[in-house]
Structure formats: structure tokens, C-alpha cells
Amino acid sequence: MNDVRTARAFIRSRGRGPTSWSDRYVSLFTLTVAAAVLADPLTTAFAALTATSRQVDPSRLGAGIALVALAYAGFLSLARRVGPVVLPATDAAWLLLSPLPRRNVLRRTSAILLAASLASGAGLSLALFAVLAGSAGHDTLVLAVAVLVGLSAAVGGMAAAVVAQSSPTWESWLRGAVVSLVVAAVLTAVAGSGPGRQVLAAVTGAPRSLGAALAGLSAAAALLLVLQAWRALGRIHVSSLLATSTRAGHLAAAAVVMDPGALTWAAEDNHWRARVLRSRPWPALLSRGAPWPRHVVSAPMALAWHDWRRLARRPGRLTALLGTAALPALAAQAQGGLSAVAVTVLTAGALTAAAVCTAGARRDGEDPGLARLFGVNARAVLAARALLPALMSAAWLTLALGVLTVTGALTGPWWLLGPLAAPALAAGALRMARRRPIDHSMPVIDTPSGAVPTGWVVWALTGVDVAAIGCAPMLYALAVRPPDTDAFVAAQAVCGIAVLAAFLLGAKTGVRRG
Amino acid sequence: MTEPIIVVRDVHVELGGTAVLRDVDLTVARGDIVAVLGVNGVGKSTLLRCIAGLQPPASGELGVLDRPPSDDSGFWRDVVLVGDEPAWYPGLTVQEHLELMHAVHRSSRLDVEAALDLFDLEKRRDMAPATLSTGQRQRLSLAMALLRPSLLLLLDEPERGLDSAFRSRLAAILTEYAAAGGTVVMATHDLEFARQARARELTLEAAA
User: Residues with Cβ < 8 Å from A350, sequence gap 6 or more?
Assistant: First the structure.
């Protein structure tokens, strides 16, 4: 028994007992039931994915590859942000600052990272096969290439992130790789519907041996990266591990109170802690000393101005957010038309654009200390805080509908619905920002598909409900796609304003008990 | 005694079935500084929360500025509570938090530069509050509270994290605030600080 095992055995003996045969039986039984339940829908989804992609034209292939590249860039970004090497808070406090061999302390974390990479790799492989099967065929070689490339990319990417955690050079390479993937995805999507059609057509006609070589090459690269990561684990910095484990502590705390929203604060606070800002005075227009009638709105607007300044201080994030307005068009192109998936991406993206501008409302909702200190009328502040999310969602939705029109998925003046749906999206985003933590005392309902915890469902739907009601005319129009949208435009204008007004009038204005 | 700002009569508070405050009486007049003293867990913070309308008493009578305390914006226009550290707005600096308070209130007691100077925060003006030390963050909370106009200051352990030199300065700032017509009720463990602020002392006894 090595030293780490001795330490862990000691900790286990003071806490939870060793794993019994009944524990193992329960774990095995749970896995078997999960496999039995998931096997059928997964097989059906797999068959549907591969069946719908026969005879794909280059524009659909380009969009599909772009989506896979974006998903992989997201996977690498997430790995970078999480750590990826983290320890439970107790291990970080006691085992890390001890003479125990570092690699042994991190052995369990390494196994978890490998399992997470393999699971993500399986998802990537499936997506890759769905994209390739249409043009390159359904045979075993294509499947093997997709599986090998997908798994190698995920495992190799995670290994690179592990090395990057202790090496600034690798960290900058990894950041460069994420940016390159996003750029490549954009170029591939654009090329697929324009100048690069011939290149993509050539890809579909590439010899099988090239695919096999690519798979072999990616597997070899992944193996080298894993070896490099294993070496890096032994010399990973304590400070880096402590920082990521603190983040993991936030994560664990958020998991305990079951409030995923708490996770974003950890990332947000880390971002600002690492920067020195230049203080600027508040705009004179928003000063309370302004003459009547300006001073009536200046105090709430002054408070709401915080969200504007925060957004302006993250231009990269703003640009990336506006860049995602192309995603609905990409999804539509990959599926050969405006499908339910593309409409879901469109509405979720518009709501997200509004939600990222509600930090002030979220902060005051979770901790009303500052709101009490300012002592400004809460309803007036809420109304003032609706302006920025409304403008952001209007810009995003107008852009997204415009791109869908340019790429041919929609025809007509659909962009008009963007600004008209924005008030409802702002109301939904603000309701989401002010929602209370999940109420775990709510009943769990047994359904044929399993138990449904209503606390979670209510929490997840808070905000989405108001946005869905307010955007109902637009959603219905996107579902039926009428030749003349005038009636829907008028209905959306009335509905959007009515929902925002009802939300502001009905919102609880008392500052919460803290 | 001039007109009372706070009237607390026979207030009884229970938390989780345990009595925290029993038959507490307190009357505070305009211009008073009251220091609530007592050992840990005796109910000092609970009394402040009752006065702030954040903890309803099980029984007894409570009046603040001629009305029952209520957790709404009308109440917080006159009353300021500095308790646990607030969650600062993300993306704003120390100076911008003060600028925001200055912009919100028509007649601030101090301008931003004076507040930065008085609370020793000039060299930290461009930093995010999260990067400050505990004592500096406490100074920022106090600066925001004292920059805005108010009638009543409720301070829960205002000396928390402050060095001894700044505690003396804070005592002088509070004395000036009271001399200008403000009222201060603070829970504290620092008897020396309370005496420097010329506070009336109220020692709570354990209720349970």
C-alpha cells in the first residue's frame, strides 16, 4: 500500500465505510437499467442521424463540419476553464500540501478526466459519423475513422489542457487552437455555401486510405499528448491546483444548493480580480442633481448603467455573442432547412443575449445588501434594467433572422420580428435573473419515464415561461411560415410590450429578506 | 430627550425554537450614538436586524422613524445598514461604486474624492473590490454608507478588519455624523472604539 492509499484509507475509516457488496450491486444494477433505458432512444437517434444524411451537398457538409468544430472548441474551452485538474477541497487542503507524490495524489482525478474525455469523444464521434456518412458512405471504415478521430481529439485535447495547466506556452497554444477552430468553423460554413464548394466536394471524394491515415495520425498524436500530460502531472504547480480546486469548491457549493447560476459568479469574479480597470465618472446625464423631469429617471438609470459599463468592458465577449447569431443559420443549413432544432437555437440564443446583460438584477436578487444601501425604488430600477437586455436581444435576433434570410432559410421581412420580440425576451431574462434558488421541498412526480423533481422544473422554466408567452406570435410564425407575416408582426408588437408591462407591474418590489 | 427615532419595547425573538432576545427595551433619540455590547451569540446582530425590519419579532413593539420598520425602498432612503459584506457589482472599481452612490443620491454628504481621501482608498480607486483586503473592503462599505444622506445608521461590527488608527478615525467620523443630526446604532465588541465615539452603551444579557 503506498502513502496516498494509506492516507485515503485513514480518511475513509473516519468517514464513510468501505464499499460493500450491496453498494457494488446497486451501482451495477443502476448502470444496467440506465443502459437498458438509453439503448433504444440512442439507437433510434443514431439511425435517424445517419439515415437523414445520405447524398449530402457540400453546403450541408460544410455546416455539419463547422458545428462539430464549434462543439470541439467548446469542449477545449470548458476544459481550460475548469482546470482541468482539480481536487476536492479536502484533498487540496490536506493531501496537496504534504510530502506525498503529486502524481499519486492526482491519480483519481486523472481517471475521472480520462472517463470524461472518452464520453465527450463518443459524442464527437457520433456527430462526425453523422456528418461523414452522407458523403463518404456507411461502411465500417467510415465508422472506425469517425470513432478514432473523435476519441483521439477528445482525449488528446484534454491531455493538452492538462499540460497547459502547468505551462504558459502550452496555455497560449491551446488558446490559439480554440480560436483557430472557431475561425475554421466559420470559414468552412461560408465555404460550403459559396467559393469552397469544390474543395468540400473533393473532401467527399477523397480516397479511403487518406481517412485511415488521418485516423492513425490522430491516435498517435493523442497518445503522445497523454504521455506528455502524465509527465506534467508530476510537476504541476500547487498554486494552479489550489486555484482550480477553489473554483471546484464554488462548483461543489453550487451543486449543494443546486443553483447552477452560482457557477457563473465564480468565473465572473475571477475575470475581474485579474484585471486593473480605469475608473470613469458616471455619465452626467444620469446624475440625480439633474433638473426635472430628468431626475425622476436618473437614479434608476444610474443603477442600471452598471450593466452597460460591464458589457462595454468585455468587448471580446460582446463580439463572440453577436458572432453566435450565425448559429441558427448554420443549424438550418446542416439540416437542410429551418428545423425545430434551428428554431430552438434561435430562441435560446436570443434569450441568452438578453440574460448576459442582467448581472445587476442577479446580484441584487441574490444579495440585496447593495440594493438596500442605494435605497432606490425597486420597480423603477427593474424597468431601467430592462432597456439593455431588450436592446441586446433585439440586435441578436435581428441579426440571426437576417442571416437566416440571406442564406435562404427564410424569405421576407422576418428581421422585423427581432426588435418586436425583444421586450418579452428582456422580461424573461429579468425574471430568470431574479428567480429564487431551487426549492427541493417541492414534490417529485412519478411518470412513466421516471421521477420528475418539480422544484428543478419550476426553476428551469422560470423566465423561459414569460419569454415563450411573449414570443408566441413569432414562434408560431416560424412553425407555420406563412407567405405574409404582417399579422404576426402586429401581434408580436402588441404581445412583446404587453408581457414586459405586465411583468414590471406584477414584479415583487420589496427587497428580499437577506 | 429629543424626539425618539427608535422605540423598542419588550421585544422577544426566537430563532429555531431558541430565545435570542427576551424583553429588550431601547429608545434612541435623534443625534444619539448607541453601542450594543455583549458576548458572542447574545443577539446584537439580531437586534439590529429587527430595527432594520429584516427579522420580525415574535412579540413586542418596534418603531423606527414613527413607523414599523419595513424592508422597502422608502425605508432604505432614510436608513442605512452596514452588516455582512455586500456582493459588489461585477466590473466596477472602488471609485465607480462611490460614483454610483453619488449619482443616485441628489444631495450626497461627501463628494467622491473626499470619501476616497477620508477612508484611505485613493490608491485603491481603480481596483475591483474583490482584490482589496478585508479591512479595505470594510472601509469601502462604510464610505458608501456615509457618502449618501441618511437619518439612521445601523452598523454591525463596523470595526471588523480595521486597524486601530482607522478605528479612531471612524469614531470621529461617526461623532461628526451624529453632531449633524444623524443617529447611529452599532453592535460592537470594541469598548475602546465605543468610548471614542462617545456612544451610550447598552449591554445585552443572554436570553436563553
Answer: A393, A396, A397, A400, A418, A421, A425
Phi, psi for B8 (deg, rounded to 5):
-120, 120
Among A24, A182, A7, which residue's Cα sits nearest to residue A91?
A7
Q: Hey, where are the domains in chain B? A: 30-54+70-203
Fold (topology level) of B30-54+70-203:
Rossmann fold (3.40.50)
For residue A279, which residues of chain B lie inside 8 Å, CB to CB? 93-96, 99, 125-126
Amino acid at B182: G
Average pLDDT, chain A: 82
DSSP-based three-state secondary structure for A375: coil
Question: If you search the block for the grid coordinates 415583487, which residue do you land on?
Answer: A508
- Distance from the Cα of B145 to chain A's closest Cα (Å) equals 7
B100 closest CB neighbour out of A268, A303, A514: A303
Report how far residue A202's alpha carbon sits from residue A217's, in angstroms, rounded to the nearest whole number. Answer: 21
pLDDT digits 0-9 by tens, A148-180: 999 999 999 999 998 988 888 988 999 999 999
What per-residue confidence (pLDDT) applies to A111? 86
Find which of B96, B109, B141, B142 to mutate to test the A interface (most A CBs within 10 Å of its CB).
B96
Check if the beta carbon of residue B105 is closer than 8 Å to that of residue B76: no
Query: A451 and chain B: CB distance < 8 Å anywhere?
Result: no
Question: What is the Cα Rg of chain A in Å?
Answer: 26
Q: How far is A134 from chain B (nearest CA, A)?
A: 47
Instruction: Specify the pLDDT at position A513.
Output: 40
Alpha helix segments (H runs only) across chain B: 44-51, 73-78, 94-104, 112-118, 134-147, 164-179, 191-196
- Sign for the pseudo-dihedral over CA of A103, A105, A107, A110: negative
Given a cut of 50, is residue A258 above it in pLDDT?
no
pLDDT score for A134? 62
User: How much is the average pLDDT of B41-65?
Assistant: 93
Q: What is the mean pLDDT of residues B113-119?
A: 95
Which of A146-160, A201-215, A217-231, B186-200 shows the lowest per-residue confidence on average (mean pLDDT)? A201-215
Is A373's CB within 8 Å of B81's CB?
Answer: yes
Record the pTM: 0.76
Contact yes or no for A404/A329 (Cβ under 8 A): yes
A42 Cα to chain B: minimum distance (Å): 42
According to DSSP, the residues that pair with A445 across neighbouring strands are A452
Among B81, B100, B144, B147, most A C-beta atoms within 10 A, so best to mutate, is B100
Element (H, E) at A146: helix A140-165
Chain B: residue nearest A357 by CA?
B90
Chain segment A455-483, per-residue pLDDT in tens: 888 988 999 999 999 999 999 999 999 98
Cα distances (Å, whole numbers) of residue A409 to A328, A400, A404, A412: 10, 11, 5, 10
Per-residue pLDDT tens over the stretch A67-101:
889 899 999 988 887 778 777 666 666 776 777 77
Cβ(B148)–Cβ(B80) under 8 Å? Answer: yes
Nearest CB partner across the interface for B77, out of A265, A295, A375: A375
- pLDDT the model gives residue A13: 59
Residue B76 reports pLDDT greater than 80: yes
Read off the C-alpha cell for B194: 465605543
Nearest residue in B to A372, CA atom:
B76
Chain B residues whose beta carbon lies within 8 Å of the beta carbon of residue A246:
none
Cell of A512: 428580499
Q: What pLDDT digit, counting tens, does each position of A16-30 carry?
A: 555 667 767 776 777
Q: List, in order, residues 6 or more apart from A66 with CB less than 8 Å away.
A: A185, A186, A188, A189, A192, A330, A334
The angle formed by the CA atoms of residues B105, B107 and B108, to the nearest 5 degrees, is: 75
ipTM: 0.88
